[in-house]
Amino acid sequence: MSLFNPKHRNALHSRITIALYRITQAIDSLFRERGRLMGLSPAQIQSLLFLKYARPGVRTIGGLTDRLGVTYATSSDVVNALEAKRLIKRIRSREDQRVVALRLTPKGEEKVGMLEDVLDEIEAAVNALPEAEQTTLLRATQAVVLRLQHAGYVKVYDMCWNCDFFQKDAHPNDPHGPHHCAFVDAPLSEANSYLECPDFVPVEKLE
Ligand code: SF4
To answer: What is the pLDDT of residue 4?
Structure first.
């Protein structure tokens, strides 16, 4: 049964699925519109946001490949294009010359600043709902995302404060790394604890 056929959309779950599909179309459209204005493709926009908000260790072409869900060759092309626009640069690691990190240039940082509000229309539409409906919607969409995550269709990146591996104030005498990540078994700075990480595991899911 095809949900794309309007005759098959009577059931509640079918109508919700189509509504979610339309929201993804709106998000695509917002990214494309902003990209046109700024001379960036949607993949380039996502890459700039990734390089601003992902934890430093994953700001590489491999990390970007995972984040975009594309091949290594495709993410390399995106990186080449952003480098040609002088929005990012490659930095070779001092410890391991084989590792090349990606970093935003000041011009790239400025571009990211102009992207921060790209989802404002979606947020405003959600915020127009009564608070009780927002709470229900949050719980329901989180459950859907979790199922899709387990099925391998979405990778959830989030910050340390909601992660089961996070140990708050584990090193109270270390001003550069007061917290601890049990996943990589290393201290975490306050600033890095607010970045997105692909190894994030939600607290309540590991019981
Ligand atoms: S695994 Fe968890 S605690 Fe460790 S860096 Fe990632 S989000 Fe933070």
So the answer is: 79
